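Task 17 of the worksheet. Students: predict the tertiary structure of the chain below and write it out as structure tokens. Keep your answer in the requested format; marks are given for formatting as well as content.
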Amino acid sequence: MNKAFVVLAQAMGEEPGFNIDIQLGLGGGAFGVFLTTLLVGALLVALAPAYTDRMKRSLTEEPIDSFIYGVLALVGLILVTFLLVLTIIGIFVVVPLAITAYVLWAVGSAIAFLLIGERIVDAEDWKLPLLVGAAINGALALTGIGGLVSFCIGAAGFGAVLRDLLA
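Model answer:
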């Protein structure tokens, strides 16, 4: 929509009154993804190390099942959210549901990228693998196809967390 406005304004010989900086948006998004993965991962390892190890083990043993579960749960969540928004009362349920889903996604994604960081870096503690995993997640967010890969990794982590939560 904004691009159409810019093209129309340029065709009319006028300079549009705003500037869209795509690189700043991509960089800010990548930094946000990096920071979220780093902070959530650090909190998980510090506050719930046994849970984090259990989720990493689950992801290692059943990555495809976790991925499918995560994608199906996300599709179901989107459908339920849409149906709840159609009702006036359901809007009050959608906000806590979306926040809960985001937190569970962040937890699952952080665990999955921590696991990837551990596979790449052979370190004694969790700090360097978490930093590497968060950097990979941030770098993937910079590109279109990388965003898809990051989504798939996050979906596997999300599925592992949901499977454990609902078991």
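Marker's comment: The CA atoms of residues 67 and 156 lie 4 Å apart. DSSP finds seven helices and no strands in the chain.
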